[in-house]
């Protein structure tokens, strides 16, 4: 046997890669997101213990599948962001009827403000 069983354990660096090669539907997005592609390729190309060519081929297939899923997730995220930006900056035409427009003095503040014209009640507070 050209590999150790701990080499492909589920918690090992290449466990996720092996699962991607053989049981790709069991992977979650979180497993794919935490997989580091360059270090996985280096680990397959320069292993600590010798591995069979067939196993290295399967592991490289798993790396390619993980890379493909990462690209797919990036595409969907960018497409979602683009559609959100487009909807945020779309021009909206508002056609108000003439009678629904407020008068100028109701919306615009006067240039000078007279505090003496303000009628306020005197409020007293009782301390208890």
Q: In words, what does this structure look like?
A:
It comes from Acorus gramineus (Dwarf sweet flag). It is found in: Nucleus. This is Sister chromatid cohesion 1 protein 3. Pfam families: Rad21_Rec8_N (PF04825). The protein is built from five helices and no strands. The protein is mainly alpha-helical. It has a domain at 5-88. Helix 1 (15-22) crosses helix 4 and helix 3 (37-45) runs antiparallel to helix 4 (53-88). The termini are far apart.
Short description:
Residues 1-99 form the Rad21/Rec8-like protein N-terminal domain. The protein is mainly alpha-helical.
Strand content: under 5%
Mean pLDDT: 84
Radius of gyration: 33 Å
- The helical percent reads 40-55%
* Oligomer status: single chain
What is the string of helix and strand elements? Answer: HHHHH
Note the overall shape. elongated
Q: How many angstroms separate the termini?
A: 90 Å
Main sheet specs: none
Poorly predicted regions = none
Number of strands: 0
Number of helices: 5
The helix/strand class is mainly alpha
């Amino acid at each position: 046997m050209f590999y150790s069983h701990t080499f492909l354990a589920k918690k090992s660096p290449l466990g996720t890669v092996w699962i991607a090669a053989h049981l790709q539907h069991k992977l979650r997005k979180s497993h794919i997101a935490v997989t580091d592609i360059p270090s996985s390729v280096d680990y397959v190309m320069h292993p600590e213990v010798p591995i069979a060519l067939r196993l290295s081929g399967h592991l490289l297939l798993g790396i390619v599948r993980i890379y493909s899923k990462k690209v797919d997730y990036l595409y969907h995220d960018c497409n979602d962001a683009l559609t959100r930006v487009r909807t945020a900056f779309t021009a909206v035409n508002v056609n108000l009827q003439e009678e629904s427009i407020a008068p100028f003095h109701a919306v615009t503040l006067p240039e000078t403000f007279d505090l003496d014209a303000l009628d306020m009640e005197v409020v007293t507070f009782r301390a208890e």
